[in-house]
Amino acid sequence: MKLKGSSYCYIGVMGIAAAVIILALPMESLKPKLLPLILGGIVFVLSAAGLWRDLFVQNNKPDGETKKDVDSEVADARLGGYLAIGVWIAGFFLAIYLVGFTIATLLFVLAYIKAHGAKWLTAIIFTIITLAVVYGVFEVVLKMSLYKGLFFAF
Amino acid sequence: MAVEAFLQALQNFRDLDLLLFMFVGSIIGIVFGLIPAIGSLTAMALIIPFTFMMPPMNAIPLLLALTSGAITAGSITSILLNIPGTGVNVATLIDGFPMNQKGQAGRALGAALVSSGMGGVFSVFLAFAIIPLVLPMVMALRSADMVFVILLGITFIGVLGTGSTLKGLISGGIGLLISFIGYQASTGASRFTFGANYLYDGIPLLPVILGIFGLPEMITLAAKGGAIAKAGANVKGVRDIFEGGKDVFRHFFLWMRSTILGYIIGIVPGVGASVAQFVAYGQARQTSRHPQKFGTGTVEGVIAPESANNAVQGGALLTMLALGIPGSPDTAILLGALLLMNVIPGPQMMTAQLDLSLTLLLIVIGANIIAASVCLILAPNLAKVAYIPGRILVPLVIAIIFIGAYVHRESLNDVVVTIAFGIVGLAMRNFGFSRPSLLLGLILGTLFEHYLFLALAASGPLFFVRPISLVLIVISIAAIFQGQIRGLFGNRFRRQAKTYETKG
Hints:
Chain A contains five helices and no strands. By secondary structure, chain A is mainly alpha-helical. Chain A has two domains: 5-76; 79-152, no CATH class. In chain A, helix 1 (5-24) packs antiparallel against helix 2 and helix 4 crosses helix 5. The termini of chain A are far apart. By secondary structure, chain B is mainly α. Helix content of chain B is 73%, strand content 1%. Chains A and B meet through helix 1, helix 2, helix 3, helix 4 and helix 5 of A and helix 8, helix 9, helix 16, helix 17 and helix 18 of B.
């Protein structure tokens, strides 16, 4: 009995469905809790069935094309690769929070392209293009105000 | 009424702004369609934030044309680089790339682009023809029936897609559960908000769309590393591009069959072009006089899937407009975009707003003509877009996703929701769960609850005892157990065949 990637997903969904049921039960009126209880129950049972199938039923048949197409990509993409891009995304969000969208975008695009082996000129050109799109379209054309960042909020 | 609406639609279609946005949408769609890591779903999710400030009659043509452009252009990389530009061009490479290897790249491109463009246009004429039949059916729907129409849509998009039935249903269920977050309209009760004001209005739609469709593609591309297409792929000349166009007319009945097939599959909620392309390819092979040539580079193997994948659009759009249930994953995102613009698809789109529906169908015709023409002229050069390295594409697209998530309500919390749903979308993508089902559940959950309580109030607990509702329930159950039903009939036929063999 070995847990697969999808098994963890089923367990996660079962947890969510159970939480929905537990949170819905104490609601006073029937109307707001009726559908969450019914659907939470259905989703819980379906996920349990999926987990049971994952653990106890030998199924060599892939889940259609999605499985086939995606499996090769998952194999190509190493866990380290996912962690690395996760760190980049977290860093980008932190930068947005601190210095706002414009500067964070500049730093993120320039650093990402350069760190992945591009020449400085390429990195600078694409950073300028991105900033032009961000500033030109959102701030100038659509007249939207982008978040300025914690450092520039005062 | 229908004639007046059609004349009004023609009048709307003459608007210069509309034509301009349709053209821009086609071009953007072509560019996105050529970049295999993006595809039409991600492209639509990325473009929605740019459309907030536009009037609906500019934004909708842009989004509709984008889908047509992406599907049409996706065949170019399938044929020239052996990489499908979008998920709906996979069947095209089975014969398209071998044709390229045989030095017939131009012919394959010509056949693909002409059949795709013509398929998209003809499907709209089919949609026009079917509207008089759809109108009385839509008018007959009551609240009780709408409950089951919504359930049918969620069931179909989960079950009949390309993934597993169980995972499809679970995905739709999660979407419905997420839709219950926030206050309930009929009672005002707050559900699953944990006291957070942010959650009181529910989970916002746009960050979810950007998160589950946009981020996972970029995360995967970044984690894999390298370029989407390797340099040195076999890009040949296109002298015989017009020969390929003529091939479509030489195999006119194959084109017609595949187009009608694609259109019918488009009408069925949730199935979409990724299924239509393989069904059309299969029927082309079965009905061919030389099925053994399929897979080795025959033009029929290019014409069939390309006609069908674009013909899905007309059928899918009609279903979405008439019932508010998307006929394909692309129209699921389009439905989300329309709701963000306060354009509510549903039965009224076939009655009071019929002219708007017809205008949208006319836009599909225009967009297909533009996309096919641009691709025919620029095909060999366009394929070079696929060489964009991932290291450049990833930060650009992620930056646009984050900004797009923020600008709708100017809230950083929306960016956090986008990241959270990006992780959810990545898990769903990698483990075969249906992302369009989740989105549909989220979009339709509130409506589902609304119609359910209306039906309960009007007819009591037995509200479903109506002919239309019962038919819809039977179809939903049949869709869920389609595998078992097929197996049952298959076994029966096999047993009968065995009996005949024994008797014989």
